[in-house]
Description:
This protein has twelve helices and eleven strands. It is elongated and about 85 Å long. It has three domains: 12-62, lambda repressor-like DNA-binding domains (434 Repressor (Amino-terminal Domain), Orthogonal Bundle); 76-172 and 306-331, Response regulator (Rossmann fold); 174-304, Response regulator (Rossmann fold, 3-Layer(aba) Sandwich), CATH 3.40.50. By secondary structure, it is an alpha/beta fold. Helix 8 packs parallel to helix 9 and helix 10 crosses helix 11 (260-272). The strands form two sheets. It has a six-stranded mixed beta sheet, with helices on both faces. It has a five-stranded parallel beta sheet with strand order 2-1-3-4-5, sandwiched between helices.
Amino acid sequence: MRKEQRTEQQDPGESTVTLEMVAKEAGVSPSTVSRILNGTAKVSEDKRRAVEAAIARTHFQPNAMARGLAKGRTMSIGVLTQFIDSPFYGEALRGVEDALAASSFIPLFVSGHWNLKDEVDRMSLLLGRRVDGVIILTGRLSDAQLIEYAQKTPIVITGRQLQAPNLLSMAVDDFQGGYTATKHLIDYGHTRIAYISGPADHPDALERLRGYKAAMEEAGLQVDSDLIAQADFHESGGAMAITQLINSRRDFTAVFAANDQMAYGARLALYRLNLRVPDDISLIGFDDLPTSLYATPPLSTIRQPVYEIGKCAAQAMLCLIEGRPYEGSLPPLELLIRETTRRLRR
């Protein structure tokens, strides 16, 4: 009995074009195609053009991993963030992804949770996977540890000013941001300004506090330690800080929260205490998270270029890997005056 032969038309998009097929189309050897793809071939321009034309005609998709391994690379970049679910770090991670999208590299995201042991463990994990470099979005790793890691793989660190071989750092001016936020409140006539700080050992929090104190002292205003509340950069911390400030029984007409998330919590706590923002208390944050424009009322804040930080960090990493100088720079901080601050009514 004759078996019925069935033919199916193959979807052209599903066909697999091999390197050998490209070589045949171009009239060269497969090894020549491979060397041209890897950038190691010394061939005539005619041969190079023939291979490029064959790749275009056949819609050949080179295997990025195979090409990377030929160069001793895994085509992956580790990204050590602190909290993947954070609205702040989420913006930075989006910047990293967008910057790497046009390259053959893929990001591997891990979280350190602002815990030194976790950060060391995550770095060991990434190095064990032989990533081609690591982007570190702030964190608790010491300068000495970062320099040691840079001896093993390229390192880009944000929120730090550090110079070392195989390492690039970039940071915004947190001191200037803290100064600008406080001066805005002073310019609006406020003299009793409370400050909600981040963690006591966090460099960003310390610099913003230093900026707050500098603006107060420059205006001839007393820095009242009872109007400085310690918190944790989270919404709940901002809410608890307001309770602490109210319990201090010190009068204040404005609050500078060292990040937007704490400002959200502060706003909620003030609402529950029947204190209106900005009629009773002016409020300013720091970061300009995407949701700050849509808060009720929209939050005055210092815009930190969070997305651009992630994007610039990834671009800097590509430069390090390829041995090129990085010539980019971060945009400056910007004061955004919205509806949570107003001039003090006398």
